[in-house]
Amino acid sequence: MHYLLYSIKRGYNFKKIRLVKRMKKFKIVFLLLVLTLVVLGFFVSKDKNVEVVETKKIVSVSTFFIYDIAKHIAGNTLKIVNILPFGTDPHSFEPTPKLMASIEKSALVIYSGAGLEPWIDAIKFKSKAIDLSKHVKLRELGSDEFEFHAHHDEQCAHSKIDPHYWLDFQNMQIATNIITEEFIKLEPKYKGFYLENRDKYIKMLQKLEKSYKRYLSACKVNTVILNHNAIGYLANKYGFHAESLSGLSPEANPTPDDMKRIFRIIKEHGASTIFFENFVSNKAMQTIAHDAKVKIDFLEPLGNITADEAKENITYEDIMYKNLEKLSKALVCH
Fold first, then answer.
1. pTM of the predicted model as reported, rounded to 2 decimal places
2. Alpha carbons within 13 A on the beta-carbon side of 133
């Protein structure tokens, strides 16, 4: 009897052990199956993300102000490529053949025009290319400005147009509307998104314009002195004069007569600060500031920004407020 009970119990234990082993195997197989599905899901998801990035249409732009508008309007719906490397002077930039080939493949190219990018004529665009200068109000150089510009830069002497039109907020609004329209043509499904972003950007420009009118309306000094006259649009609109060492050509070598002329202007107008810009040599202006015992600072005409500024996501709005602060101090505005 005891043997029988022992046998039954032993058989039961064997069955129980076999059942436990089967359950363990089942759990292992189940866990492996779940893990496989998770891994497959990760790679499928990853592939989908890559596909979305690769299918974004490419828009190439030539200068920072266009880049700023485009990024604010498009968000993540388009791949915006800045042709001009950050930290490079737009006046002297020459794209490599590889870069030019890449530009040709863009779904859309938007450039400043007005003679700022002479290299653009060498590119054969496969898609649409927009010259923004044909849509905005351009400033013609006065006779004195033109003669001075021609003297310093024979290569551009034929042009009587000031290419820095993006420093006029009305022109920036026109550019914003044009870029928005072109993006809607590229991606109609994002029309509402683009229009909403356009309205926000234009509101920002209108606020900037009001600030410039307010802070530059009553000033004791009426002349700003800088190495390169990139602020003619601002000067004309807000009623001050811009005197420069090298006209519209930032890389021109100043003559002794140029240096004497700037010394005379500093004395006549009681200027306390003179300006230079980031991408050109400031040695001549440093010498003038030292000898004339005035301060020296830099303005940013926004043809481009530095690499450090790009890392900090500095915007057109940020820089224009900084420029306003410096101009109002130099002009002694109330």
1. 0.78
2. 17
